[in-house]
Write a structure and sequence with these properties.
- This protein is of the alpha/beta class and 223 residues long.
- It has a single domain, classed as Alpha/Beta hydrolase fold, catalytic domain (Rossmann fold, 3-Layer(aba) Sandwich).
- It contains 6 helices and 8 strands.
- The chain has an 8-stranded mixed sheet with strand order 1-2-4-3-5-6-7-8, with helices on both faces.
- Strand 1 and strand 2 form a beta hairpin.
- Helix 1 crosses helix 6 and helix 3 packs across helix 4.
- The longest helix is centred in the C-terminal third of the chain and has 24 residues.
- The chain is globular, with a radius of gyration of 16 Å.
Length: 223
Amino acid sequence: MVDSSSAVHVPAGAVTLEGNLTVPDNAGGVVLFAHGSGSSRHSPRNRHVAALLNEARLATLLVDLLTADEEGIDRRTAHLRFDIPLLATRLTAATDWLQQQPATRRLRIGYFGASTGAGAALVAAAERSDAVGAVVSRGGRPDLAGTALAHVRAPTLLIVGENDPTVIELNRLALGQLRVAKRLVIVPGASHLFEEPGALDEVAWLAREWYERHLAQVQARAG
């Protein structure tokens, strides 16, 4: 399998977002990563998950939802990472961009949201229901999507660590508001960041299975 990987620039209104796009040969879908809580496209956790998805012939776009200047502000205030409408708007812009690129325009799109990025991913999924075929949340805050949860049409997988009780409860509340194919998986022995041995691999395999079922198989039928 030969990957085509490149640094990309994604227009989003008045700003341009920096990203990394990897497209395996014969890709069966493309997964757009929504980082949160001060993370970026360089996050080793999300890069690890992305690499395993690439091995499964899923393209990935890791994109910074905040500009460098905004990241600087957020490091001081921790405010922009909770600006769900802003993050969701940036995600929809990246979604539209993927639909215009020759390498990805025919691929079904999945979202992979972490922390506050999960809330933004679900808001964006509700707004781009025709394009988004699956959502996965890793240690996320889907509750931050608010009333948008009831309008999500993409099958949604919520993954939380066993040792993250507050986030587990918030995910259970969000699960009850989703009206689509949905699942909550609690990874035994894992904390919020899934730093324990094997925990992140479990997240990646769960996500891969979800995307293969809801993106790649649908893509194959459509083709």
